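Q: Could you predict the 3D structure of Beta-galactosidase?
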Amino acid sequence: MHTFEISNEFLLDGEPFTILSGSIHYTRVHPTDWHHSLYNLKAMGFNTVETYVPWNMHEPESGVFDFAGIKDLARFLDEAAELGLWAIVRPSPFICAEWEWGGLPAWLLPERSMRVRANDPAFLAHVASYYDRLMPILVERQITHGGNIIMMQIENEYGSYCEDKDYLRAIRDLMVERGVDVPLCTSDGPWCGCLRAGTLIDDDVLATGNFGSRSAENLAALKAFHEEHGKNWPLMCMEFWDGWFNRWGENVIRRDAQDLADCVRECLQVGNGINLYMFHGGTNFAFMNACSARHTHDIHQVTSYDYDAPLNEEGNPTEKWYLLRDVVRELFPSAWTGEPLIKEAVAVESIECKERVSLFNVLDALSEPVTSQYPQPMEDLGQSYGYTLYTTQIERDIAPDAEERIRVIDGRDRAKVYVEGTCVATQYQEHIGEDIKCVLPAEQNRLDILMENMGRVGYGHKLLADTQHKGIRTGVCVDLHFITGWEQRCLPLTDISGIDYSAGFEEGQPAFHRFEFNLDEPADTFIDTTGFGKGCAFVNGVNVGRFWEVGPIMTLYVPHGFTRAGVNELVLFETEGVYESTISLRSEPLIRHLEKEGVE
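A: Sure. Here are the predicted structure tokens for Beta-galactosidase:
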């Protein structure tokens, strides 16, 4: 059995060991590609894989657990072990990671008296229940039990959020009580304020730093913090940012490959370990993209998590991969390196739409109505992600040609407002609540408001803000008064198989557009959404993510594991009434340069 220790160096089987790690999040990569990504990590000369564990994926409903398919953490770790890779696991409860609400499950939100990420007994009880199911998977895979996990992390970047040491100790204790006995660590920004708030250094928990440049300077700051507390510990960057994530309406962020290689070399010459964040970024499938918190207008992140990483979104090597392999060969000449695995994607041109149907005509196939006097927030309806449709009747009490005033009070994130099936307004974030003026066409008028949860914040002070409660949170005013008598439809779109495409299509309404394409064998591809407005796409019933015409990325990556030989079904749910009669699949992503950045 192997051993791993933290002394003045990292020691593997009693010998000095440099951790060469790369981040791969198993829930962002299809299981059929795990070997591809892990092998490419090994072939670059690295010896360790790091992954977060997103709580919201494994406990989608309170008390309901799922560790199958893309969520099969055990299988992912075992595949890494088969390749001879060690593992660092960061098992929540909060992960940031540009992941929806930082991995916290949205079903926590209705408990308004509870404070998450705090020494709150109610929150810790939920974490304990989750850890009861998660930790047995990890404990038996620790190096102390003959497995490949050498280290685990307590919480994540807590020094950028709070300084509640009792909470951090409580999370540590929940892990240890369930059998975690490998070394523990924290990771934070490498400056004193962050480290003092977020570490448990006085409890002998290794403090690591997160940065992406100025390695000597940042590691010196980390070393000084260690010494301030009487520690002579190894220096590790737990997140060496080799690229960055992207947001709707902003140009794609790139980092020079040679600059990265030079900075990684510096880090490894000074420190004892590095974890590239990300090695393979992958994809925010379904509705798992997060949101960057800002003072007023939060900025939602795109489906692709390419991250400009050493492996691109598809999992193939970039220039960075080859330059980093050169660094490994230079600094660690005895490390095994190899040639990378490379996949090919396919293109299919001009696929004709077979049928389309308006959302309002297939509601019964997608959800059951819930009635209430006032509109309810998404989470209070038992829904976490996707869309919620609010419907009521409003009476015309002014002259037939006079404008009525409608206001959506306190809603998130984006509202599409329809009167008698016609869109009268689209409002996003801070514009929600402004007057919507329209002529009511009938004595009694159907009012529909389609609210979209575009992703909760994954980092920062807004984690507990009311804006993380999605849908309509207060009500809707017509003239000066709140309207009562609402019907709500939860539309998480987890199952669209029951849609009847013969139910009728109306221009200008949200709709499902169905296509079919043929493949000789399962293959990677990219859906070109050019010409479509906003929505999400399904391949053979699986939600592969959101698209939006504002860019910058105009394609959605589809891994070969979601496709099949023969006929494949592609469905686009589009909310703006903007669509084309054909769609194409590309063999590479399409990225549009934006002359003017920002989403209005």
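Q: Anything worth pointing out?
A: The chain is about 20% helix and 30% strand.
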